[in-house]
Amino acid sequence: MEFFNLIKATQKSGKPDGVIWRTAKSESRANLQLDVDLEDAGIETGRGHDYMKPIRTDFPVFNDLPAEGVLDFEWCTRYELADDGRTWQLKAGAVPADGFHQEETTSDDEAVIVDGVDTTTGEVVGIQSGDDNSDITEDDDNNTHYPVAQFRMPQRIISQFISDAMTHHVTQEQRIQIGSLEMDTDNSYIQNLLLATRNIPEIDNLDTANLWRLTDAVKKVFPSDKRTELGLLIQFLNTWMATPHIDRGLLVKEWAAGNRTSLIQRTDAGANAGGGIATDRNPDYEHTLDTLDQEIALATLPMDFDIYDFPVSVHRRAKDIIKAKESPWKEWSAALRSTPGILDYSRASIFALIRGAHADVHHFPTSLRTYINANLTESQHDKPKAETVNAACHSPESNAADDFGRQLAADRGEYVEGISAPDDPKWVREDLTKTQHPQVANLGGGMFSIEGLMASPAPTSTKEEATSNVQMETTVQVKSKNDNAISAGKSADAAAPQTDAVDALKIMTERCPELAAAVLKDQELASTTGETVEEVTAETEQVSAAPAWPEYFEPGRYEGVPNEVYHAANGTSSTMVKDARVSLMYFEARHVSRTIQKVRSPVLDMGNLVHALALQPDDMDKEFSVEPEIPEGAFTTTATIRSFIDEYNAALPALLSADDIKALLEAHNATLPQPVPLGDDVTQTGENYMALPAEFQRVEEGQKVTAAKMKACIKEYNATLPAQVKTSGSRDALLEQLAIINPDLVAQEAQKQQPLKVSGTKADLMQSVKSVNPDAVFADELLDAWRDNPEAKVLVTRQQLATALTIQKALLNHPTAGKLLTHPSRAVEVSYFGIDEETGLEIRVRPDLEIDMGGPRIGADLKTISMWNIKQEGLRAKLHREIIERDYHLSAAMYCETAALDQFFWIFVNKDENYHWIAIIEASAELLELGMLEYRKAMRAIANGFDTGEWPAPITEDYAEELNDFDVRRLEALRVQA
Predict the structure, then answer these.
(1) How far is CA 49 from the centre of its chain?
(2) Of 754, 747, 736, 749, which Cα lies nearest the Cα of 665?
């Protein structure tokens, strides 16, 4: 459907009006595309802008219509809207800008003549001298033939349109008809055809044979006696041009049947896959074999979901199935992709087919094909039956299952509303003060309910209260009697007496002989038939659930707290204290108002990786994603892909080259009689005329022999000669010519397997390899999937992992670090929560490592550093500055205070590649005291900030800059020199 829009400019803007039109399936899609076109053109519409809102009008039918999707500002200079505000008409004195209208301007009255009509007066002034039949001379007659190749493109199209077969020449009568049809503006069919072909520049490159095929296809799809929509005709021509030669016949067949398909898709077996008709899918949804694979994957999933609006998580799982080529998707895909017309079937029928199949049918290709042929039946693809939709959605056709369950419950002796008779005596409530008799119910399958049989309660008085300790036995055995004594239990009030052995069969025989007989009968039947009777246990299983961490942590020690839980927990951590030492203003912005957010970078921090490998190597996969190894035989570079393609192509049978085909065509042309040339002058024309056979020398004696008459005879003779085939063009064009003279050879050539493309982008080459080797593995795809990182983990390359493993090895091989990191009593990442005694603020700490030696408690932190360029003599001083500047001593003091640690060590490891030295440094008592005093000072400042609401900046007073000692000495030295 065509949508034509007027973009009218406001009077203030002084800008010209514009028009734009597009073909779209729906009005909503046309509006969306219009917004995109206007945005691309930099045009804003509506109040306050230079242009008003777009106005939709009727689609005009004029030869100078602008191209589809082009915003044209010249159209409104020639045309205007009529009084109805929808129909376009030519402005007075304006001339259409097309090649069909001939214009003349006289010097006297400036009259403009279009198609023989004065546009100012409306007077018919006759046929203009520029008539399109000017190539017809006075010497021509009905025997004259005019070469189509010399016509203009509109005339070439009409010449093939009026012919029942491809023609290279037309007669004089046909030539006149071509000119008349071209100028007949009342013939909307021809005018629409010419206008549509003008919108597709690729048609100009078609030869005569393909032009005839094009017009023949148009006549088959669009009958000439019916109205043809221009937009639909343009859509068909575009589709026909984009379709390969071999599929154009199927395309015409689909369109003639009313299926407006835009692509002829073929199954893996080469048959027509369909896809051109309406189904239960969204009309804007393009259904291909790839989307069919997604539907197959979705149908193999066991969960219930709306097949027309499935969740994103389910869709993602389906994509993973396709990517991994999991079973049974792989077998179903191979079977359905080779089924003719598979794309015509509704989504509901595909789901119902797969979900209704036996679980193991995909293991047997023959059975799977038989099942598909028998069950893939559908008459109305756009409105599948309710039964099909129910089967596709895993939904029951009715409440039959519920009704069946209710009926079973009633058969077991239970009261079921709507089935059981309420006035039945057994459903009448009894007085609970009366003695209860044992109730026995058949549960089916050899199982009985003996509730009340083992311990019938004694009658009780309403005036007395009695308490008793009842032991609950939750195990029932039916395969043999139980002679084991129940162990003595303990009561909260008094010790219960020792119980005796219980024989269930004996009690049942005494109290209910009929029930005992039924049980023994079922057991005998089970033993004779080989039925295995399992012991049914009703013991409550201990299910280890993931711990639910509290929102508020009380003071104490907690193991296994996840990182995200710890960092979001209550309490001031050592990192927060360090932020307060930067300034209270920064502390408030980071941890109180939280206007400063620090987002963890996905870029690898080698310290975190070494930390995970050294302390928690088993949990590394939870946080890091390691680059996958490239398997042997995978395609890693373009060269390896090209090598495979070259080897594959070399093994294929050789195809005829363009030179081979050209040689065959030239050999054929050489066997044909050559046409007689017309000659450059009268003498040469006469000689050629005399060379004609006598029956073609039609100038009678006594008549004046003119060059025109002789040329007419030569033309007549040449027209009787067989046409020569073309020997120029692409290989496909030459192959078409060869099919005219040797169709068998062309058929043999078509059966040969085509070689893979050896040019194009790397992605194109990869697709070529996949077409013949679906299981091919490409390094680029593996790495791309790894980089996509759907779980948002930290990416680790193989090189980075190798460096980290080397550091881990150095740590474990170190005599001191190795013992600390592998100590059997070690605990990693233990969280401690407490309260600061001086300020009353909550605090929390989390040392990397703690070791309980049975007496002293040791803590340690693992730190990675980069000091490759520090001289050995200055290394200790550098490490000391590292500890002080980064407040490591403050954290250590806070750890020792809160976690009750007696000693604290830092394990420093240098992370520079191949230079992994390790330093074990113990925090001295003085260093810990310094850290503790700085910690106390910072905590008091934090408490004061919470109390007063004042968070001062790092610098609050103006000051005068003073010289330090070094600058004073430098100043004195310069004074002496002065």
Answers:
(1) 38
(2) 736
Go through the chain and tell me how many residues it has. 978
How many angstroms separate the CA atoms of 171 and 144, rounded? Answer: 6
Q: Which residues contact 419 (CB under 8 A, 6 or more apart)?
A: 406, 407, 410
C-alpha dihedral (317, 323, 326, 331), degrees to nearest 10: 110
Q: Look at residue 630 and tell me whether its pLDDT is greater than 70.
A: yes
Could you tell me the sign of the dihedral formed by the alpha carbons of 829, 832, 833, 838, in that order?
negative
Residues contacting residue 724 through CB under 8 Å, at least 6 positions apart? 669, 672
Please list, residue by residue across 519-530, b when 16 or more beta carbons sit within 10 angstroms of its beta carbon and e when fewer do. beebbeeeeeee
Pairing mode of beta strands 849-852, 88-90: unpaired
Q: Is the dihedral of CA 745, 746, 749, 751 positive or negative?
A: negative
State the pLDDT confidence band at 591, using cuts at 50, 70 and 90. very high
Q: Which of 6-10, 505-509, 596-600, 800-804 is predicted least confidently?
A: 505-509
CB hemisphere CA count around 435 (13 angstroms) = 5
Residue-averaged pLDDT of the chain: 78
User: What's the distance, Cα to Cα, between the start and end of the chain in Å?
Assistant: 94
- The domains found in the chain, sorted by start residue, are 2-90 (no CATH), 131-258 (no CATH), 264-397 (no CATH), 556-613+797-948 (3.90.320.10), 673-721 (no CATH)
Query: 398 — phi, psi (to 5°)?
Result: -155, -170
8 A C-beta contact, residue 657 and residue 731: yes
What is the rounded distance in angstroms from the CA atom of residue 918 to the CA atom of residue 262?
68
Q: Under a CB-based contact definition with an 8 Å cutoff, are residues 270 and 62 in contact?
A: no
Give 51's strand partners.
9, 45
Report how far residue 667's alpha carbon sits from residue 672's, in angstroms, rounded to the nearest whole number. 9
Nearest to 678 by CA among 669, 666, 686, 670: 686
Look up residue 294 and give its two tokens: 């997604």
How many other β-carbons are positioned within 10 Å of the β-carbon of residue 323? 11
Task: Quote the CA–CA distance of 626 and 796 in Å, as a whole number.
Answer: 5
Q: Tell me the C-alpha distance between 165 and 122, whole Å.
A: 41
Burial of 616 (0-12, 13-18, 19+ CB in 10 A): middle
Nearest to 893 by CA among 924, 848, 862, 851: 924
Are 734 and 665 within 8 A, CB to CB? yes
Mean pLDDT of 806-823: 92
Q: What dihedral angle (degrees, nearest 10) is formed by the CA atoms of 885, 891, 897, 902?
A: -90
Residue 921 to residue 443: CA distance in whole angstroms: 73
Q: Which amino acid is at 765?
A: L
Task: Give the count of alpha carbons within 13 A of 310, CB side only.
Answer: 22
- Which of these, 901, 858, 859, 906, lies nearest to 882 by C-alpha position? 906
Which tokens hold the place of 928? Answer: 């810990």
Whether 349 and 386 have beta carbons less than 8 Å apart is answered as: no
Most confident of 248-252, 514-518, 781-785, 899-903: 899-903
Reported as a single tens digit per residue, the pLDDT across 316-328 is 788 889 988 888 8
Q: Is the pLDDT of residue 77 over 80?
A: yes
Whether the model pTM is above 0.70? no
Q: Two tokens at 726?
A: 């073309």
